[in-house]
Amino acid sequence: GMIWSECKEIWEEGPREYVVHLWNLLDFGMLSIFVASFTARFMAFLKASEAQQYVDQYVQDDDLSNVTLPPEVAYFTYARNKWLPSDPQIISEGLYAIAVVLSFSRIAYILPANESFGPLQISLGRTVKDIFKFMVIFIMVFLAFMIGMFNLYSYYLGAKYNPAFTT
Questions:
Q1: 133 and 72 fall within a common domain
Q2: Do 83 and 89 form a contact (C-beta atoms < 8 A)?
Q3: Which residues contact residue 159 at a Cβ distance below 8 angstroms, ignoring those fewer than 6 apart?
Q4: How does pLDDT run across 65-118, given as a tens digit for each residue?
Q5: 46 and 23 in one domain?
Q6: Which domain holds residue 124?
Q7: Number of domains in the chain
Q8: Which residues lie closer than 8 Å to 54 by C-beta, 6 or more apart?
Q9: Are residues 38 and 91 located together in one domain of the fold?
Q10: pLDDT per residue over 122-142, tens digit each?
Q11: Signal peptide span per the entry (predicted)?
Q12: In this structure, what are the phi and psi dihedrals at residue 144, rounded to the nearest 5 degrees?
């Protein structure tokens, strides 16, 4: 339903006007990630179905630990920590988690209208901007200190102990 709603909004406003509002981009991105997640989950389902068909067709033993399976079928007998990082099920779960976080961030679109939460959201947004400004200054000082220490110690690379720097 939300995908249809976004398509209607793009049709009514036009693509150029639709992209101007950042909330529309958030909605479009969230829905795209949900679709990618469900597509990856469907691909994982198809791969598992093929493996199950192979087992149903060619394996007579009920205990799969005694049977030699092809690698693409044996893969589904492994524990999840041994799965490949590119497995569609793992990708699907990661994308779904990101999409859920983005869907909860849509609440921020409604909050400014509330008399209690609106000012809090505005002040939090300004506070976050100030924190980022502070972090830029902090990183610049840290980087300068790091470069200075590197220049000081670069002549002693590999030395475990140098009496010149003990005090």
A1: no
A2: yes
A3: none
A4: 677 778 887 788 788 888 888 889 999 999 999 999 988 888 777 777 777 777
A5: yes
A6: 114-166
A7: 2
A8: 69, 70, 73
A9: yes
A10: 888 899 999 999 999 999 999
A11: none
A12: -65, -45
Do both 22 and 79 map to the same domain? yes
75 or 37, greater pLDDT: 37
**Which of 109, 131, 157 is the last residue before a domain boundary?**
109
- Whole-structure pTM value: 0.64
In a shared domain, residues 58 and 139: no
Q: For the chain, give the secondary structure using H, E and C.
A: CHHHHHHHHHHHHCHHHHHHCHHHHHHHHHHHHHHHHHHHHHHHHHHHHHHHHHHHHHCCCCCHHHCCCCHHHHHHHCCHHHCCCCCHHHHHHHHHHHHHHHHHHCHHHHHHHCCCHHHHHHHHHHHHHHHHHHHHHHHHHHHHHHHHHHHHHHHHCCCCCCHHHCC
Q: Are residues 57 and 118 in the same domain?
A: no
